[in-house]
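Would you mind writing out a protein's amino acid sequence and the numbers that encode its backbone to help me picture the idea?
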Amino acid sequence: MNEDGTMARGQDLFNFAKKHKLKIGKIEDLIAYRLKKEKLVKLKKQSQINVKKQKYKIKIYENLLDGSEHFALIKGKIKKGITPRVRVISSNIVQNYLINQKLPNSFNKTLDYFKKYQNCVLIFIKDTNLSSVTQTLRKYKNKEFDKKGADKSIKNYGIGAQIIKDLNIKNMILITRTLKKVIGLDGYGIKIKKQELI
């Protein structure tokens, strides 16, 4: 806090730390530390699957913190010397598929983009705003999906990074809608060689 009661930010914090001989840790440093030291996912199952006339290996992961499941679709080979294209997306798959009977547009668009390349990974993160399938269906029946703030899609970069590490990807080409500043990946030894807009 500043002396006037406002929240200290940026240079105010550096000045305070210098005055009192304190060290400052950045959020990026904290994320990198946790990603490096803690394992938050475990592989539950893997098999082969055909999606949009393409062969993929599917790996299903469990979040050890909340039990939610996420999956990775892998096309081609993931091994040393190969830099795959990787996209991480999140969605309310219950609403999109079970209710609307269709997959998210970002899902289809990504797989269409992958048709041009040999080695690709699509990591699908369950929207963490969803606490259960039951709750989602209840909201649908009560017509609450249209309310402001309901079913807001978020991206869980931490879990995505954990899955990327488990897949032993060291270098990657990030597929994204907009250029991003991604933090914390250095803690896993993961490097983004470039970003491609989709």
DSSP finds six helices and seven strands in the chain.
